Amino acid sequence: MSDPAMNEYPHFLGSEIEQGDPTDALFHIIPVPYERTVSYGGGTAKGPWAILDASWQLETWDGKSTPCELGIYTREAIVCEGEEPAVIERIAAATKEVVSLGKMPVAIGGEHTVTGGIIKGLLDAGITDFGVVQIDAHADLRDAYEGNPLSHASVMKRIVDLGIPLYQLGVRAYCEEEKEAREKYGVHFQDADQLVPNNITEITLPDDFPKKVFFTLDIDGMDPSVFPSTGTPVPGGLGWYQTLSLFESVADQREIIGFDLMEFAPIQGFHAYEFAAAQLIYKMMGIVQRNK
Ligand SMILES: [Mn+2]
Predict the structure, then answer these.
(1) Position 1 pLDDT exceeds 70
(2) What's the chain's average pLDDT?
(3) pLDDT for the residue 2
(4) How far is the CA of 151 from the centre of ligand 1 (A)?
(5) Whose CA is closest to 237, among 135, 155, 162?
(6) Where are the beta strands (DSSP E) in the chain?
(7) How far apart are CA 61 and CA 72, in angstroms?
(8) What is the distance in A from the centroid of ligand 1 to the CA of 20?
């Protein structure tokens, strides 16, 4: 990170593109430096700034196409001080605004709790016919964690509670309560112990899975050898190409209505991870572009 004073957030890919009119940009980056319910290591509040800063090192050509041709607008970072429900409301309001413009929210966390706010924003904007596909090391299906129903370990429980269909990929740490929640709510999943040893790079969504998908990427779903820069790393995760291929297989089959990258906690002095996170977001934009 070139400047630890994080008052001003750099615009995504600001070295190459102007921050234009929001109505001209498909992708609306929403930085959410929210960090509250840390279970182990900290630092996710610094994730958005570090990733945006690193995005200045990206090439506009992602190897297959030029995603920034669709326009990238970086919104003001969400103010994350105050009571948790108030912050969730602010995230939801920003998301609703993006969706109401007919644009695509791309949120950068912050802890995974943030995704609950984005989902609320989609619902507030009147979108109800969507499912969520999640990459994560953890199921995040506890009803509450350490007494907190707004914990990052409960974010997917809040989502299935709303009746939203869920497909989990890469999970390798979950408790009995979460196993029961999977059964009760009919959660679809392919865990890391199936995906990684068999190098599975595509999935087939069930026929009755909604046509619109919000894709949430908890960076700890990927292997710590790729991304050690996260609060609760677990070995045996997804690789770089595997993650992108899985995302692409979902984008092939469904309409991506937004995505996020959560739980990235920069490690000072290790720029490789920040750059990798920025590139991952840009490559996901490229996959969206090529599957439109
Ligand atoms: Mn998570």
Answers:
(1) no
(2) 95
(3) 44
(4) 10
(5) 135
(6) 27-32, 72-74, 104-109, 130-135, 166-169, 188-190, 212-218, 255-262
(7) 14
(8) 32
pLDDT digits (tens, 9 = 90+) for 155-207: 999 999 999 999 999 999 999 999 999 999 999 999 999 999 999 999 999 99
Distance from the alpha carbon of residue 221 to the mean position of ligand 1, in angstroms = 8
Domains and CATH numbers, the chain: 22-290 (3.40.800.10)
Q: Residues lining ligand 1 (ion), CB within 5 A? A: 112, 136, 140, 218
Ligand 1 centre to CA of 236 (Å) is 16
CA of 218 from ligand 1 middle (Å) equals 5
CB 55 within 8 A of CB 276: no
Token representation of residue 184: 């009760």
Q: Give the Å distance between the CA of 263 and the centre of ligand 1.
A: 7
Band (42; pLDDT cuts 50, 70, 90): confident
